[in-house]
Structures are given as structure tokens and as C-alpha cells.
Amino acid sequence: MTDEELLIMYNKYKKKRKIIFIFVVILIISVLVLFTFNQKNKDEIDKQTDTEPPKIVLIKDYDEVEEGSTIKYKNYIKTVTDNSKEDLLNKVTYNEIDTSKEGEYVITYEVVDSSKNKAQAKLKIKVYKKEEVKESEKEQETPLENITPIQETPSKEPEKEPISPSKDNSNNTPSTNQKIVKYFLFSDGYTMQNVASVCAEELKKTGKAGMCSPIQDENGIYLGMKLETN
Hints:
Largest sheet: 4 strands, mixed
């Protein structure tokens, strides 16, 4: 074979090789384009068939804050999940409330996934005045010495003072040397308004020197008056 024939064969081989290379490149590009197109269509189909909304979970659904407080809204969000595995935490929106006025408010958290599915979660907030808390604390801390004791009718006779065997407050005149002791108790019907005057009147009737003194039980509760002559 002559050199000229060899050169012709080499040129033919070189030309075929170039054609094969171009064919392979075109084939690879076609496959990539087709794959990308199919994947895009698949994603679009998945989005169209995805009807499951995402989920927002809050750490609580009710809270109370002091008037004028600053609310950190995102701190109430516990989790945000979706079946598409999207990161939706930074896509959550919410309305802000005015904490300068007392009252009850609702914060609505909302998020939308790539398939346009929407989810909401609500948080109730009560804004209270600081003065109200202080007033309640004052009521709880009221000293006992500032509370006026309620007068109660005693359920038993006083233990400090022995009761005379006879509580007969009749007008019988006792002997001149007999010491008279009489009791005028609230349990017998006497009141704070008349017990002192009744005791004084009875002392006057005896014609003796003596005194009327109040009676208290071990708790310091007044039970009535005691008449005692000399």
C-alpha cells in the first residue's frame, strides 16, 4: 500500500472519529436535558398532588404578660414540620399586639408550604396592670393587728372567772354582810349597748359599794360584765 493510500485511510478514520465524538456529546446533552425536564415535571406533579398542610406546634397556647412588656414572638414556636421536609421555620408569619394597653389578645401564627398548603396556630395573651398585682399582694400581707376582731357569742362559760351558783338577778335584798357577785353575760341576752348600764343599775339597787368589770375569755373576747360588791 502506498503512502498516498495510507494518508487517505487515515483521513477517513479521523473524520469518522470526529463524527462519533460529536454524536456522543449530543447524546449526553440530550440525556441530561431529558432528565432535567422529567424531574421538573415530577416536582410539579408532586406539588399539585400534595394537599397535606404543614404543622405549627407552640410551647403554650396561653400566657400572661405585664403591661408594657416586650414579647419575643418566635420564642413561642416549638416546631414547624411538613411532609415535603422543607425548612419552614423562617417562613412563619404572625401579627403583633399592643402591650401598652391591658386586655386579652390573640396572636395568629401562619405558614405556607411550596404546595400552597396553609397552617395556623393561635396564642392567647392577657396583658395585666402591674398595679393590680401590687394591690393583691397588699391584701395578702395585711397585718393581723390591723384586723378588727368580730364579737362572737361564746359557746361556753369563762374559765378565768368562777360563775356564781345563782345567776338570779332578782331584786331580793341580800343580808348586809353578804358579798354579792352577779354576772351579766351576752349569752343571757345582754348586749354591748346595755350591759354596762344594767350592771350599774343592779349595783345601785344593792345599796353596797362595789364595781362592775368586763369579763374576757382566754382569747380576749368580751363575754359580758361582772358585778361584785365589797
